[in-house]
Design a protein that fits this description.
With 158 residues, the chain is an alpha+beta fold. 25% of the residues lie in helices and 35% in strands. It has four helices and seven strands.
Length: 158
Amino acid sequence: MKLNENRNSRIKLEFKKYQINYFNNCMELFESNCPSSFAEEERADYIYYLQNCRDHYLLGFTDNNLISTVGIAIHSSVLASLRWIMVHPDYHSKGCGRQLMDYVKNYVAGNGIQKLSISTSQHANNFFEKCGARELNFINDGWGKGMHKIDMEISLNN
């Protein structure tokens, strides 16, 4: 996938709902983030997720290239969780993750949900802290060797 080379400007994402015909694009995005952000052991879980997706899974495009994804699972009237949020490495620090999180927070708050659960790694926990998340639990090698699992939560009560 050849992506936009202008890395110095902020990116405006166009969101589309996941459909199975985007499976290969999503796998390419996953591979671009593996093993830096996802453990190799997570590949099979992601494939299963894409093949059986029942969440509100959004794809972020720019210039017709898939550069980001985020899933929202609603568990109850007060709790939702993030699923498989990722941004292509060429677009890190360009505002894409922030756009994803703004969308997610607005979507879940608009549905009356009070808490957003996040399971991440040591590679993204600082980003989620900037978005208002607090750490709840840390599991050494929780996603695989060298990939620690950090459970976090954002309270949407304002």
